[in-house]
Amino acid sequence: MNKFGCSPAYARRIRDDIDGVAVADLVETFGSPLFVYSEGFIRKKYRQMHTAFSTRYPNVAFGWSYKTNYLNAICALMHQQGSLAEVVSDMEYEKARALGMPGEKIIFNGPHKPAAALEKAVREGAMIHADHLDELYDLERVAQGAGQPVPLGIRLNLDAGIYPQWSRFGFNLESGQALEAVRRIKNGGKLRLRGLHCHIGTFIMDASAYSRQVKKMVAFAYKVEKLFGFSIEYLDIGGGFPSRNRLKGVYLTPEIALPSVDEFAEAVTETLSKELRPGDFPKLIVEAGRAMVDEAGRLITTVVASKRLPDGTRAYIVDAGVNLLFTANWYKLNIEIDRESGGVNEQSIVYGPLCMNIDVVDEGVQLPPLSRGTRLIVSPVGAYNQTQSMQFIEYRPAAVLIGESGMVDLIREAESLPDIIQREKLPDRLALKKLP
Amino acid sequence: MKTQAKAVFRGYANVFFMPEAGSGIVVLGVTLLCPEMALAGAVAVAASYGFARMIGMEKLFLESGHYTYNPLLVGLSLGYLFKITATAVFLIASAGVITFLATVFMAGIFLTYLRLPVMSLPFVAVSSIVYIASIQYASLPGLMYAARDSMACDVRLPFWLAGFFKAFGAVLFVPSILAGIALSVVVVRHSRILFFLALLGYYVGAAARTLMLGSAAQGFGDVNNFNFIFIAMALGGIFLIPSITSYLLAVISVATAAVLTDAITGLWHYYGIPAFTLPFNVVTLGAASALNAARHPLVPGTACNTPEETLRVASVSRLRFGGQKRTLHLPFAGRWTVWQAFDGQWTHKGSWRYAYDFVITDEHGLTHGGGGVRLEDYHCWKKPVLAPVPGRVAQVVDDLPDSPIGLANATDNWGNAVVIEDARGFFVEISHFASQSIRVKKGDWVEAGTVLGLCGNSGYSPQPHIHVQVQAAGTIGAPSLPFSFVSYIHDGEFKSNSLPGEQCAVEPLYRDKRLDSITNFMLDEEMRYAVLRNGRQVDTLPLTVKMATDGTFYFASPRGQLYFGKHEGAFYMYRVTGADPWLPLFFQALPRMPLAYREKLVWSDYLPANLASSGLRSRLADLFSSVFHRLAAVRVTQTFTNENRIESMIETNLACRRRTASAELDRHKGFASVTVENVTLKLEKNHA
């Protein structure tokens, strides 16, 4: 409630609960800082995105991009909604398997797939997307060993009008590299191409880029089908859809600057219906990550001190910094406070707890005078922050999931010293004390 | 020569509604009880065949049983009357030729105008003619009447039993108990239902005649009683699918035939000729034409070898392939909800009762977010509308405005619409498109799934929705015809051809390229399966893909054939023929499979009861299934447990036994393995 009206001097954003659970209670039970995820939001967002695509094209699957947030609870939630697992490393692959995902429901992307990981993925029937020729050779060796052809997809990179063009992943389309790769697959005789994958970039703010991408992918699929006789069963268009987050330096709010999910879905499916032959419906795979989960995550952090800098700027030190908020590097995150505070807003800097000059959560945010112990609720932070958070200087905090009925589940415990040192080995000659 | 012999034996067997040449040999054997008559029969058949061959109608003669059994019966009837002399042979041979001509003539009329088989009417006609003619030849020295006494070496039985067997033999002019017993054995072996009908017909008919004639001996002993046997067999098991109704019809027809038989015998007797099979032909053909006219649902679509099989095929195909022949895909993508179905409460009434309306609902069951006052609030607003059938666009209206919420356009009810002409002979109209959103034009060819335009609110539409109906005419708003939807999911279950109820959430399934190519079997493709029982190899099963004359594909093993095909979004096993013990396992484990994958998708199908069980259990099911048609089929519930695995539960009807089966798809082509209980067929990979 903002009883000061709309004056920028008094406007403040106050949030004392998340999905009906009091911020104070959350911190009291689970400590600060604290990652808080909303199950209701994730389910609703999934339904919204899935409906946007599936009511416009009859054969749609979603792949949950693990690297966006691979907390087991978040992944399980996505899988429960019907998502495949999209992994980009052996670690993520094993994580998906450990969670109970069978191989055939795992999309294996990424530029580094060790030979042993490839062999396992082939054996378990994963959807492997080859990134480079060396990987094709590895796969041919695996196929040789298995005594039967291996079905696979390849990753394409292409010019969809996006700058910078992502050209480091997969085979380039325009230069003919991709076609050569398929020719190599055909001539090798040990692999069977069944799908195409392409991810044009991240935080794409122009829906028409997807039209250009899909048009090129369909044309390439038909070319490959005609020249080599492969049946392209699916087109994986990657992800890159933006969340309602605000890039630094973008003046407009995300609601105005960013196309809606429906606009993205329309761009993709309209192009499919124009470019595909009548009656041909290869599976459309969408690897939405950020757009699906970013807004579902918030971080509660606590003001531990306030300072006045020599230039007169108000500064606060909070207990979470860039060790937990990697995306604060490029997003201007929303900062809400958990309680009313009298006084006029002041341009303030929010520093994290690290003893590092770069640890800045926000270089300039209008905040009223905050007392110690005030909680800041930083959002949206559901994407990439959990997975990229560091065991650097500080312990990593707990994460909780608020269920649709308001129950709170701890989905990751706060770390303590053993988490930091358990893998370390101290040579005896360096021991400072006798170990028990 | 072999073909001819087989066709002739088949003709002999046909007299008793049996199609196998083997049974015909026994029938021939029975006629041999009186060698002279057997010879007469053979002469008539030979003359008839010879003539057919001479005028180039040999093929027709061999194809259809009535060209054999009519001259056979004529020959037997004349052999019964005369001793075999040169003159008699001449007479019999000419009667054979006349019979052929009469059969061609009558069969033409019957098939064309009445859609009925000619049965043994030619025999009745020709035999009656020759009998009448022979009155003139009474004094001819070359023609001697024979005194046939087939009772000479007969067994003694009570009159009510002897009468049955005699009547059975009497159709071959051998009214002997032994002949009757021999024929009974063949009929029982062939079909229990037919034999049951024979008994039913005889006793009902004999009782009726006893009632009318006042004498049990006369009622039960008359040789003409074979007519009752044949009426019951034909109506109870051949012209109708065996059922309580068919049995009742058989009883009623036999009872009425008693009077008719008395009338005909009385009249014919005046000229000294027996009634032959006239009562049978008149009553059966009369009832059959009435059934045809009534389009009775129990008239079988395909005639099979035995009534049991007819029943099984009919019950199983009704259960397996229900729904209408006018089939549509759902006209959208994703999950939509049925707002109004056939005979709906608002507008689907009268001439327009066969129509469906669809909207999109959210998790709260609402069709809109926000306040629901703007068109944009509605979930289905401007969502693509897909062509439900392949066909030619016959009409397009695109320029009507979208009505604001709550204000329906009552002048142009149908709003913006597309009419598609389906090559199967009907039109599909889809209505209420958004203004100026239609992307096809008159004359365009569309495939099922082509985007036609966007969902809107034009015409008489209180909120955005899709209206679809099937019409006999191409004009917008023409009266509607019944139809059904193919290949969709409702409540996690795959429906091949069905109609969802109102408020049901449904999602269309379009053919998935992966499953499509896995089931894309090429002619002459070869596969080898190892047969494992409890994990130990007991046999191997080589399969080759072949095509039958009707265009269906089948897997041929050295001992049998398994027919399969794809139809409107699903892969089907159609039937198994031959004696291969392993081929039925494929059918049991995978009678059908949707050609699109969804996790945990469930569907059900039915197997012919004889395929799912064997021996006594199967015989019992056969016998009782005429009373309880459900017993003819066995339900199979199937589930996709992953994208390559289907698990099935086969529920047997008798003794409530459940069996499990599973099928594993190969990653590239075909079935990697198929398991039914403890037997597994495992694809042997070709490493070459």
What does this structure look like?
Chain A contains 13 helices and 20 strands. Chain A is α/β, with parallel strands linked by helices and 436 residues long. Chain A has two domains: 17-37 and 296-415, Lyase, Ornithine Decarboxylase, Chain A, domain 1, CATH 2.40.37; 39-294, Alanine racemase (TIM Barrel), CATH 3.20.20. The longest helix of chain A has 21 residues, at 208-228. The mean pLDDT of chain A is 94. By secondary structure, chain B is α+β, with helices and mostly antiparallel strands. Chain B has 19 helices and 26 strands. The chains are: A alpha/beta (436), B alpha+beta (688). Chains A and B meet through helix 2 of A and helix 16 of B.
Task: Summarize this structure briefly.
The complex is a heterodimer of chains A (about 425) and B (about 700). Chain A is α/β, with parallel strands linked by helices. Chain A is built from 13 helices and 20 strands.
